[in-house]
Amino acid sequence: MKKAFLHITSALILGSALTACVNTVEQNTPLRSTGDMGVIIERATGQVQIVNHTNKTVLSEVDGLGDLSHASIVYSRDQRYAYVFGRDGGLTKIDILKDKIDNRVIQSGNSIGGAISQDGKLVAVSNYTPGGVKVFDSETLETVAVIDSTILKGKPLNKDGSQVRSKVVGLVDAPNNRFIFSLFDSHEIWVADFSGREAGEEMKLTKFTDIGYFPYDALISPDGRYYIAGLFGEDGMALLDLWHIEKGVTRILSDYGKGDKKLPVYKMPHLEGWAMAGDYAFMPAVGQHKVLVVNTKTWQQVAEIPAHSQPIFVMAQPDNRQIWVNFAYPDNNTIQVFNTETFELVNTLTPGPAVLHMEFTPRGEHVWMSVRDSNEIHVYDTKTQALIKTMPSKSPSGIFFTNRAHQIGL
């Protein structure tokens, strides 16, 4: 009886001690939720800031990410990990709860963006050098597939003796664990289908050739149906309807581009910054001071909106009520806001030199802007267009909130 009593007493004491330890750990470790977090690229220093957009605060800074001059980010399904695609070929997995790099690989010599699959298990990176796409396991960053792009015949060999391949651009994720991308030099669009991977099937690759000269960027519609590539070598765009892939690539908007006047283009617009609201797409005109309005049922232009300068990003608020437009150098200190129903100008703002990117909070009450040359992030109220907070950031560019984890093409 005495032994049993001692055992019970010892167990109670041990249990109390463990509970005390757990409580101490919980008290000393602040909990954090990923749903209202984001990552900001600090391009000049190879760093990123981890932020909270509810409290509008910077939580931490992570360095050692290499060349971030054209960096972008996608998120894991649980929003815990940010995958950063660096220009130097670096693919970096950041744990935004622990404020540190979880893994990093140098997967090419020069890369330009990436995507994560619908099931969150694959991360793909598009490469300029050596060309092609590499696909990685999102948990381990081990190589799953290497998709070599088309060889460019007649080109001198690379320094390592290998043949020169087409640069890959416009890589996006699509429903059913597919990746869609464009081949700049060989004028193609490819679809890499990993939908049978869990059943042990090989990747299926579908190639569309002669889609138009030099596709330089692309986007996918928010519903994952349409993949649209802009063409640098000619006016017009190439469209692939993923609901009817058997119909191949069609040409749309034959007048979209520099036109006969060959206007000076200070910076090509980013197609991923298109706004799609209702039945309209709001597109930056190439080299012109206007935003084009296109009917997404017919893919015909129906109107144009005079703008301050050459648009780069044309982005819609989550409620689609307004579009926010930034501009190319030398007018990149200005933002204009337009009504999507009337196409009227709502407001003109001048946040500061080199407004490179905008990101809306998930429900659209605020918009964050990177003002690179003043080393600041500005937060605006979308209803009043009033500046509500300014935060320091070293040469900021892209801003990426974690709600992107659950959006097609982002």
Tell me about this structure.
Among the domains are: 110-267, Methylamine Dehydrogenase, Chain H (7 Propeller), CATH 2.130.10.10; 274-350, Thrombin, subunit H. Residues 1-6, 8-14 and 17-26 have low confidence and may be disordered. A hairpin with a 5-residue loop joins strand 21 (280-284) and strand 22 (290-295). The protein has 410 residues and is mainly β. 41% of the residues are buried. The chain has 1 helix and 32 strands. Strands 3-2-1-32 form a 4-stranded antiparallel beta sheet, with no helix packed on it. A 4-stranded antiparallel beta sheet has the order 4-5-6-7, with no helix packed on it. Strands 8-9-10-11 form a 4-stranded antiparallel beta sheet, with no helix packed on it. Helices cover 7% and strands 45% of the residues. The protein has one helix at residues 2-28; strands at 37-42, 47-52, 57-62, 72-75, 81-85, 90-95, 100-106, 110-116, 122-129, 132-137, 143-147, 168-174, 178-183, 188-193, 204-209, 215-220, 226-231, 237-241, 249-252, 275-277, 280-284, 290-295, 300-306, 311-316, 322-327, 335-339, 345-349, 355-360, 366-371, 376-381, 387-392, 396-401.
What layout of secondary structure does this protein have?
Layout: H1 2-28, E1 37-42, E2 47-52, E3 57-62, E4 72-75, E5 81-85, E6 90-95, E7 100-106, E8 110-116, E9 122-129, E10 132-137, E11 143-147, E12 168-174, E13 178-183, E14 188-193, E15 204-209, E16 215-220, E17 226-231, E18 237-241, E19 249-252, E20 275-277, E21 280-284, E22 290-295, E23 300-306, E24 311-316, E25 322-327, E26 335-339, E27 345-349, E28 355-360, E29 366-371, E30 376-381, E31 387-392, E32 396-401
Antiparallel strand pairs: 1-2, 1-32, 2-3, 4-5, 5-6, 6-7, 8-9, 9-10, 10-11, 12-13, 13-14, 14-15, 16-17, 17-18, 18-19, 20-21, 21-22, 22-23, 24-25, 25-26, 26-27, 28-29, 29-30, 30-31
